[in-house]
Structures are given as structure tokens and as C-alpha cells.
Amino acid sequence: MPTVSDVLAALDALWPPELAESWDAVGLVCGDPAAEVSRVLFAVDPVPEVADEAVRLGADLLVTHHPLYLRGTTTVAPLGPAGFKGRVVHELIRNDVALLVAHTNADRADPGVSDALAAAVDLRVTGPLVPDPSDPAGRRGLGRVCELDAPLTLAEFAARAAHGLPATAAGLRVAGDPDAEVRTVAVCGGSGDSLFDEVRAAGVDVFLTADLRHHPASEARLAGRPALVDAAHWATEWPWCEQAAGQLDEISDRHGWALRTHVSRTVTDPWTGHAPSTSPAGEPAAPAAAATPSSRSTSSGAPR
Ligand SMILES: [Zn+2]
Questions:
Q1: How far away, in angstroms, is 69 Cα from ligand 1 center?
Q2: Binding-site annotation: residue ranges for a divalent metal cation
Q3: What residue numbers does the annotated binding site cover?
Q4: Is 98 in the same domain as 204?
């Protein structure tokens, strides 16, 4: 049976820690490197429900995409607003579960987080959106530029993305002409709005990512291209968990490790509800108690 350190060495080869951004916090967070591993759980977020799931499963190793402590800490006490992080540390250590983080190193790897996102939406990757200059093969880097096998309208492409990604309460937001033709797509798992310059330079029809903010999205719309499909951050990164579990399965088979791998289906997207707008487009709804025909009027002066 492999040890935590054996599995770590194999996963470090898939997602070399030196590929991580300088501000990132990747690698082993807790766990005895000499402990044996038979069961591994992959998840996006190291939150308490995922730690509970790892314990319930009897996992010896939890691999998450997001760091537990990104900015450093002087305590792992389960107290205060960030006390859930300390609770996760205590629960994992108490139950002999190691925690490994593969974040921006998994983003930049080949295959990486955005390859998994592209595959989930049935796109053919042609190359990285921001190539890693240290990769002679030109396959590593941030985001991916992709092609569709056959053109779709923007509405059809958005429906395909909604079908291919795991469901979340908020679903997907779309910006653009629903009938516009889509042949090329840039994808970036997680927050992608820092990559608009590269997306524009790639000349793609659509940018599929998460966490797009008003101003960058508005500027992209005013420029006319690309159309935007904005999914939940968690949903764009979750396909990586399945890709990663498949990669570890192959390694396990090669070494005769007989590891059992699992992918968490717990939706850890923080947005838990969605209220569709019900007032007429462009108008705020009248407060129910004050809405008398004689006392309220629209901005044009017409009685409501
Ligand atoms: Zn992320």
C-alpha cells in the first residue's frame, strides 16, 4: 500500500508545485507523510462538509483544488470567523486524513483544470490561452482556446455548457446575441476576468469562465466580442476532480496500488438560491405596501 508521500510524489509529477503562482499555497496541509493510503477523495473546496464526507468515506487523503489557508495564519484554533478552517484541520488530523492542495499548479498543468472544463462542454482544445513559456510543447498555461466540432448558436452553446457542468442554484449567465454563431471558445476554470486581453487577442467567439464582474463584462459587450457565458466558480472547476481521479486511477493501476478514488458531489458553490426578476424590464418593482395607483408614478409620469 502506498504512503501519503508516495501518492504526493505521483501527484506532484502531474501538477508540479513550481507551476503555482507565487501568492498561492499548494502542497500538503496536514497529514503524516508515512501514513498508508488506500482511499482518496477529490473535491474543489476544503470546507467542513467535504471534510465530513472524507471521514465518512474512510478516505486517507483528501485532495482539494482550493487552499485551506491561502494567506497564512498563526493559529489553527477552531475559533472566530475563520474557525471553520481550524475545525477542518482538527477533524482531518483526528481521523487520519491527509489534505493536499493542487491549485494554480493544477490550473497550469497539462492536462489542467481548463482542459477538464473544455472536455465537460465537449470542446476540442487547440492550445493554452496564456502559454507557459517554460513548456516547449506549448500545452501548459492558463485557460484554453477551443473549437467546436460543428458551429452552434450562442443559445445552443450556453445550453450545452449548462448540461455539461454540474448544476448550481444560480445556473449560467449569458451575454450576447443568442443567435450569434459560435465556432471558437476560450475557457478558464475559476475566475477568468483578468484574462480578457488574452481572450480578445485569441479572437474567439465566446469566453466561458466564472466570477465575471460588471465592468470587464460590460466593456467586452461594448467591444462586440466575445460573447460571455459565466458559470458558478465551483462548477467550472469541479470537472477537474473527475479528471484528477482518473489520472490517479491510472497511476494506481501502473504501480499496483489498488487505490480507491472518489469524487465529491457535494455542491460547495456558496450561492444557494436564485430569484428570477419579476418586475418589468428596467423598472424596479413597487414596494407592495406603497403601491397605490394615485400616489405612485413611473419616471415618465404615466400612472402605474
Ligand atoms: Zn477556483
A1: 14
A2: 65-66, 107, 233, 237
A3: 65-66, 107, 233, 237
A4: no
Choose one of 106, 140, 168: the last residue of a domain: 106
* Cα→Cα distances 208→117, 138, 174, 264, Å: 9, 21, 9, 23
Ligand 1 center from residue 103 Cα (angstroms): 7
- Look at residue 123 and tell me if it is in a domain: yes
What is the distance in A from the centroid of ligand 1 to the CA of 45?
Answer: 9
Distance CA 194, CA 225 (A): 16
What tens digit of pLDDT does each residue of 119-171 get?
999 999 999 999 999 999 999 999 999 999 999 999 999 999 999 999 999 99
CA of residue 95 to ligand 1 center, whole Å = 26
Of the CA atoms within 13 Å of residue 154, those in its CB half-sphere come to 20
Expressed in angstroms and rounded, the spacing between residue 234 Cα and the centre of ligand 1 is 7
Same domain, 102 and 116: no
Q: How many Å apart are CA 171 and CA 274, to the nearest integer?
A: 8
Q: Can you say whether residue 183 is alpha, beta or left, with left for phi > 0 and alpha for psi between -120 and 50 degrees?
A: alpha
Going from the Cα of 33 to the center of ligand 1, the distance in angstroms, rounded, reads 26
211 Cα to the center of ligand 1, angstroms: 10
Quick one: DSSP state of residue 203? Answer: T
Provide the residue range defining the domain that includes 70.
Answer: 4-106
- Whole-number Å distance, alpha carbon 44 to ligand 1 midpoint, is 8
Amino acid at 67: P
pLDDT single digits (tens) 100-113? 999 999 999 999 99
Q: What is the pTM of this model?
A: 0.92
